Backbone:
């Protein structure tokens, strides 16, 4: 029996993944499943790059399914994504995963499973830590704790303190991540843009955000009582702008234009660095096919689906 087949379009932020995904979905009777850890949240539209008007008649799943401040993990995404995939296959639709959260995509491709086992550690000197204790530690301290716990190496992003904390909490609660080979094949296509073009697209996207009302979006989140600490964790764009708005709330005379432009420049450079980290993540996987344009991506997909 031929294996079921899934297409994944991945790559760094602002690289044009959504446009490719929509075009491919239209051609191959597909529906899109978002693999973006922030687009799941309602009211986070502009800063997460939701292209709400660009989907056409293509069905798009796993956006706007949580409220701001609500916890949503990789395993929450994985559970929902698998249910949607089964439904799409039952309707003879092609599942198309689109997003830049690499860990989400790899969890699906490699068949991550969360199982419960008795809590064990490799060293008797390791104690159980509470969340507030972990949040007060440096990244290096978190990395040391994580390495001393009995956890499987499933390509955890050790440079992301939030994810390292979650890995420690899972291990301490006895939740162990294992793999089970999935019953489908996945072709992963990555958008391969020259670095200078990617940076220009990021810079233009940031400018567009502020023209579209990014300040209003973040200010309303703060006004509605969304914890600034949650915004710090959800993404660097929201962290930088929330910090700026909270600072300006404490000053008279409104927003300082010079400081505003400095904040935008800082945001652009921070997103450049984030895009580089995304590229580093995806280039770790030799099975990912890098395509410079949509035409070459379509050729790879045609061969895969045959």
Residues:
């Amino acid at each position: 029996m031929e294996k079921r087949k899934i297409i994944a379009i991945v790559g760094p932020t602002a690289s044009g993944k959504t446009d490719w995904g929509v075009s491919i979905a239209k051609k191959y009777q597909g529906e899109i499943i978002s693999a973006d850890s922030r687009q799941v949240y309602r009211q986070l539209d502009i800063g997460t790059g939701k292209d709400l008007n660009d989907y056409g008649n293509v069905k798009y799943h796993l956006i706007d399914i949580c409220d701001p401040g609500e916890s949503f993990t990789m395993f929450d995404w994985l559970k929902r994504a698998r249910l949607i995939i089964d439904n799409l296959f039952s309707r003879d639709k092609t599942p198309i995963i689109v997003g830049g959260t690499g860990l989400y995509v790899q969890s699906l491709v490699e068949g991550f499973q969360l199982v419960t086992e008795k809590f064990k550690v490799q060293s008797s000197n390791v104690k159980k830590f509470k969340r507030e204790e972990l949040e007060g530690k440096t990244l290096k301290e978190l990395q040391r704790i994580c390495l001393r716990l009995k956890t499987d190496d499933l390509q955890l992003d050790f440079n992301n303190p939030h994810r390292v904390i979650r890995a420690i909490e899972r291990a301490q609660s006895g939740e162990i991540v294992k793999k089970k080979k999935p019953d489908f094949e996945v072709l992963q296509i990555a958008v391969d843009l020259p670095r200078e073009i990617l940076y220009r697209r990021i810079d233009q996207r940031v400018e567009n955000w502020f023209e579209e009302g990014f300040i209003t979006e973040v200010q309303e989140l703060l006004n509605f009582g969304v914890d600034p600490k949650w915004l710090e964790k959800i993404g660097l764009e929201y962290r930088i702008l929330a910090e700026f708005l909270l600072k300006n709330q404490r000053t008279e005379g409104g927003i300082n234009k010079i400081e505003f432009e400095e904040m935008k420049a800082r945001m652009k450079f921070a997103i450049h660095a984030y895009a580089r980290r995304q590229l580093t993540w995806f280039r770790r996987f030799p099975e990912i096919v890098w395509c410079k344009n949509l035409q070459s991506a379509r050729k790879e997909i045609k061969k895969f689906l045959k």
